[in-house]
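The aim of this short unit is practical: by the end, you should be able to scan a pair of folded records and say something sensible about each. We start with the first protein, listed as its amino acid sequence and then its structure tokens.
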Amino acid sequence: MDFLTDGIMALTWQQLVMYAVGITLIWLAIKKGFEPALLLPMGFGAILVNLPFSGVVNQTLTGGIQANGVIEWMFHVGIEASEVMPILLFIGIGAMIDFGPLLSGPSLFLFGAGAQFGIFAAILVAALLGFRLTDAASIGIIGAADGPTSILVSQVLGSRYIGAIAVAAYSYMALVPIVQPFAIRLVTTKKERCIHMDYNPKSVSKIIRIAFPIAVTMIVGLVAPQSVALVGFLMFGNLIRECGVLGTMSDTAQNILANLITLLLGITISFSMRADQFVTKDTLLILVIGLFAFVMDTIGGVLLAKFMNLFLKKKINPMIGGAGISAFPMSSRVIQKMAMEEDPTNVILMQAAGANVSGQIASVIAGGMVINLAASCDQANTVMAALTIMGKGMAGIFAAILIILLLVWILRKVSR
């Protein structure tokens, strides 16, 4: 009867820690409502993959028999071999996004670029702390505030920390209502937070709405080829939404596809949360660097808005810059809530929403930039390479966004 106790005897303290991590993620999903569609399956999966001799991961049984585990198979097929799961999720995300507020106020595009600063600041910090370049780049992409992008970039770059990166990315996305107000108050005054902004939306024609995702895909594909999979599927989802002839498919992409892929992605990514890989001091460092990235994203966007105000007669509420992260629509709602806390009559939701969807585009451009630059830089001199990625990455994002701005201006002129 010893076989009945084999599993118990094989338990390690690291596996017990992972059970606690899994239960905590499940608790955060159910009790606090933090990204439940992903944290709940991720938490349950963390328990599954850390059970001794678990049948969900590949095992060699007595007699040399190989037993294939379903979660390990899903990880190899859906993430490692093709990154198909995070990429397919972008179809659903694109179908959810309304670019109308952004297209009616194209200057909001700039805040999406400014709010990617945390990515590159975090890459530099990770490099200074001794992470190899590809791992530092993967950790930095947590600052994209975009879970699928974080997973895809870390997988393409072959990071050893994909599980910790995924947990950090989605956990901090859920904590946007806590992290962003703290960061914004660090660099703004009450007077700045009370600035009112006029909202005079210009109608956006159907032609522009259809042409925009096609043109953005082509431009970004030429400027940052490594972003094509990310931005292409995002814009394909948006084209399904805007074309007007695929209403049922648009609803399916927004609801059934997005929910199903998110569920599968959560439980699949848990394969990389095995105790021997996850319970390390590096995981704690990644969580700290990820938080730093989120804070610096917000600060970068806010400081860009404050810089622009030096040259504008009609001032921008600097909090709008903080909405330029990819956490949509959470960030725009947080900004509106903060504005009304300072002044109950201050409504800046639509401007914040425009900056927020700009962040969705900028984050996938940043993901492609990071992949390309990290692969081409000198892997030996990590800190210098991180500085190079920082300079070229931010310049590349702003260049791509400015080209898209020019495109929108041309489309609006032509459609009149």
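Turning to the second protein, read its sequence before its tokens, just as you did above.
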Amino acid sequence: MALSNYGELKSAVANLLNREDLTANIPDWISITTAMINRDTKFRNRLMEASTDLAFTSNEVTLPTDFLEARTAVYLSSPRVRLEYLTPAQFEDIYTSDSSGTPQQFTILGNKLKVGPFPGVGINLRLAYVQKVPALTTDASTNWVLDEHPDVLLYGACVGASPFLGDDQRLQTFFGLYDRAAAELAGMDSRARWNGAPVRPTLSVAIV
């Protein structure tokens, strides 16, 4: 059973459910499974890590639309400065909108990243962050979860159908297969980090 794109995934779910009356719901169950992966921190791994350069003209900038949580924030000065994270409350206690100087700290509030102090001129900051799993659509027919762990999406969608399946004896099988696939996905990052590599502390800062 090939699962190399969105269309094949939907067909595979339909074949497992064998319920023509539920076919129209399959995209919703795939989307719900993807949203669950994005919400649950145990699934976050190296394939979700990205970086981008942010240009500031004031003390705040809008975060990337696929942002989930920050890893590091570095002021691209010479020498470069790795910024310390503060909670929004801590940040507001220290900085005002007219605080001036070399950026030392940052916070995240809603969809904004704020730095403090702000030097009063345009600056660039490199943000390493965890990005959302891209949604599957007809135009974007694959993502890293489908490439690496298609069974998570396959059985997650089948589990999503559970309210419509009543006492279907297959439900226990679907839940068991999903739990196993999800556990393998959750262990993916720890295997990569502990496979002989030095341990480095990371910062995890989610949207508040």
